[in-house]
Write a structure and sequence with these properties.
Elements lengths: L5 E2 L7 E4 L3 E8 L5 E9 L9 H9 L10 E2 L3 E5 L2 E14 L7 E13 L4 E9 L3 H14 L1 E2 L2
Antiparallel strand pairs: 1-10, 2-3, 3-4, 4-9, 5-7, 6-7, 7-8, 8-9
C-alpha cells in the first residue's frame, strides 16, 4: 500500500472525518440542512474507476446520464496547489433533499474539482456546497488549498 497521506489544516467550525488517504471536511449547513463539504482522496494509478487525471477530468466534463436541473460544467483551468501544476473544474448541479421523504426540495449546488498530480496517480480535492453558502464556503476552500501538502 502506498502512503499517500497529506497535511492540511481543518478550517475553524468544520469537522474532519477519515484517515490518511481519504478525508472529508464537513462545514456549515443551509436552511435545507445540506452541508458544505471538502473531500480529498488519493487516486492510485491502478484505480479502475479513474485511469489517469486526464480521464478523471474528461469524465467530469461529460453530461450526466440522468438529467440534473441546472447542471453545467466549465473547462479545466490551470491552478497551482502546493507548488504543483494542478487543474480545476467548476460545475453547477443540484441535490434533492431529503432523499427519502415524500416531498423533496431541489437545492442548487456548486461543485469544484481540483486535480493535484502525485509522483504516481493524483489527488482529487472536491468542494461541494449549496449555492446559498458558496460565497463563504468557497473562501474556506481556497484557504484549505493553501494548507494542503501532499506527501507523494
Amino acid at each position: 500500500m502506498i502512503d499517500a497521506s497529506f497535511e492540511y489544516a481543518v478550517p475553524p467550525g468544520w469537522t474532519a472525518e477519515g484517515g490518511e488517504q481519504r478525508l472529508t471536511l464537513l462545514g456549515p449547513r443551509d436552511e435545507n440542512t445540506v452541508a458544505a463539504l471538502i473531500s480529498v482522496r488519493y487516486v492510485a494509478p491502478e484505480d479502475p474507476s479513474h485511469k489517469s487525471a486526464d480521464a478523471y477530468l474528461t469524465r467530469l466534463a461529460s453530461k450526466p446520464t440522468i438529467p440534473v436541473p441546472g447542471w453545467k460544467s466549465g473547462p479545466a483551468k490551470p491552478l497551482t496547489v502546493a507548488g504543483r501544476k494542478a487543474r480545476i473544474v467548476e460545475r453547477d448541479t443540484s441535490q434533492f433533499t431529503p432523499p427519502t421523504a415524500r416531498e423533496i426540495r431541489e437545492v442548487p449546488m456548486k461543485e469544484i474539482h481540483v486535480v493535484v498530480p502525485a509522483a504516481k496517480g493524483f489527488y482529487a480535492i472536491v468542494y461541494y456546497a449549496p449555492r446559498s453558502l458558496d460565497k463563504k464556503a468557497r473562501l474556506v476552500f481556497r484557504q484549505f488549498l493553501r494548507t494542503f501538502k501532499p506527501k507523494l
